[in-house]
Amino acid sequence: MSTLGRLCSLPVLFCFAVLAGACQSEPSSPPDAAAQDVQTYGASVDTAAARAAAEVAAKPSRLADTTVTVRGRISTVCQKKGCWLALDTGTAMPIRVLVPRTDDGYEFTVPTTLAGEATVTGTLRTVELDSATQNHLAEDGAASARAREVQIAATGIRVVPDA
Predict the structure, then answer these.
(1) Do the beta carbons of residue 150 and residue 126 sit within 8 Å?
(2) H or E stretch including 97?
(3) Cα separation values, 130 from 15, 108, 135, 136, Å
(4) CB half-sphere exposure, 9, CA atoms < 13 A
(5) pTM of the predicted structure, to 2 decimals
(6) Measured distance CA(103)–CA(121) in Å, rounded
(7) How do 51-52 and 67-77 pair as beta strands?
(8) Degrees to nearest 5, angle at CA 150 with 136 and 109
(9) What is the pLDDT of residues 2-48, one digit of tens each?
(10) What is the β-pairing status of strands 116-128 and 105-106?
(11) Residue 109 burial (C-beta neighbours within 10 Å; 0-12, 13-18, 19+)
(12) Which of 99, 81, 94 is nearest to 136 (CA)?
């Protein structure tokens, strides 16, 4: 075969190689999209030891002033600064998760539009709220703040957002 014949066959071989590569099958299982979308605020959270929010809210005195890891669905988020969120417990009283304050504001905040399943680590306590605090929370977007509520002072929040 002449040199010219060999040069003319190169584009044909190149096209064949491209087409053969394009026919390769896609991976059989796509990467886990939920794992890629996980959002963490503050310190990392170990989900292995998490308790359900309903379980913790049922008997908060057993865990008072201890570090806990709790998981639950986000029911409400502070609409002004993202400085707290509430975890649904399946009862009328959610668990309020507070972001720690610093001299300059907050250690971290969460988006006001945050929604999904959250796992939170922090110190649990039951708090009596005066009427001024209840009104303040209602202004921030809380559904009827109660005089007594379970709170977690969060060190870390891990969220798997809604799709």
Answers:
(1) yes
(2) strand 95-98
(3) 76, 25, 9, 10
(4) 6
(5) 0.75
(6) 22
(7) parallel
(8) 55
(9) 555 554 554 544 444 434 444 443 443 344 444 569 999 999 999 99
(10) unpaired
(11) middle
(12) 81
